[in-house]
Design goal:
The chain is an all-alpha fold. The protein has a single domain, classed as Up-down Bundle (Glycerol uptake facilitator protein). It has 8 helices and no strands. Helix 7 packs antiparallel against helix 8. It is globular and about 50 Å long. The two termini are 23 Å apart.
C-alpha cells in the first residue's frame, strides 16, 4: 500500500526531529560531559540515520534533508509537487528536534551548531564535497539494480558517520540545510549560514550529474541483474 502525502510528511517531520535530537544531542552531551568524544558524535549521527532509514524509509523515503529531496527531484526520482511540502516538513522537524535539545542544554550551549573551523569558503568546499559524495552514494545504492534492503541503510549511514568523523572538525559535516539552520535559529548564531544551504544544494546537483555519467545502460536484449 502506498503511503499518503500526509503520512510521508509526518514521517519526514519525525525523522528529521530525531536526527536533530540524537545527532546534535550527542554534540551537546559531549559538550557538557566530554563522555562521547568526536568519534562518538560521528557514530551517533550514523546510527540515527540507519534507524530512520530502516524505520521510516518505506513510508517517505527517509530524506530528512532538503538537499536530498532536491537531489532526488533533480535525478527524476521524486515528483516536483512534493518538494516544497517535504522541505517544509523537514524544517519543522528540525526545529522540533533543536527545540527539544535546547530544553535540555546548559545555558550558552552551541546546540550542535555547524560553524567553519577556518574560512567560510573552506567550509563551503568541504560541505560541497561531503554532500556530493553522500548524494552520489544514495543515488547509486537506491537504484533498482543494486538496492538490497538493510544494506542500503548500512551503506548510507556508514557514509554519514565517516564524513562526520573526517569532515566534522572542519565544517561540522552538516550536508543538510535543516540540520544547520535549526540550531542557529535557537542559539542566534547564523555565522556563514549561507554555506550550509548553498554547498549542500550544489553538492547534490553535482552528484546527480555524476550519477548520470556513471549510469550503465544495459543492452535492450539483456535483462539487468536481479
Amino acid at each position: 500500500m502506498t503511503a499518503t502525502l500526509r503520512q510521508c510528511l509526518l514521517a519526514e517531520v519525525l525523522g528529521t526531529a530525531f536526527l536533530l535530537i540524537f545527532g546534535t544531542g550527542a554534540v551537546v552531551v559531549d559538550e557538557q560531559t566530554h563522555a562521547i568524544g568526536h568519534g562518538g558524535v560521528a557514530a551517533a549521527f550514523g546510527l540515527i540515520v540507519l534507524i530512520i532509514i530502516q524505520g521510516l524509509g518505506h513510508i517517505s523515503g527517509a530524506h530528512v534533508n532538503p538537499a536530498v529531496t532536491i537531489g532526488f527531484w533533480a535525478a527524476g526520482r521524486f515528483p516536483g509537487r512534493r518538494v516544497v511540502p517535504y522541505v517544509l516538513a523537514q524544517l519543522v522537524g528540525a526545529a522540533l528536534g533543536s527545540g527539544a535539545v535546547w530544553l535540555l542544554a546548559a545555558p550558552g550551549s552551541s546546540l550542535g551548531a555547524t560553524l567553519p573551523a577556518h574560512s567560510a569558503w573552506q567550509a563551503f568546499g568541504v560541505e560541497l564535497g561531503l554532500t556530493f559524495w553522500l548524494m552520489l552514494i544514495i543515488l547509486r545504492v537506491t537504484c533498482s539494480y543494486y538496492e538490497q534492503g538493510l544494506l542500503v541503510g548500512i551503506t548510507i549511514s556508514s557514509t554519514v558517520a565517516l564524513e562526520a568523523l573526517v569532515g566534522g572538525p572542519l565544517s561540522g559535516a552538516s550536508m543538510n540545510p535543516a540540520r544547520s539552520l535549526s540550531p542557529a535559529l535557537f542559539n542566534g548564531n547564523f555565522t556563514a549560514a549561507w554555506v550550509y544551504v548553498a554547498a549542500p544544494v550544489a553538492g547534490v546537483l553535482l552528484a546527480v550529474l555524476a550519477d548520470r555519467l556513471l549510469d550503465l545502460k544495459a543492452p535492450a536484449n539483456i535483462q539487468p541483474p536481479q
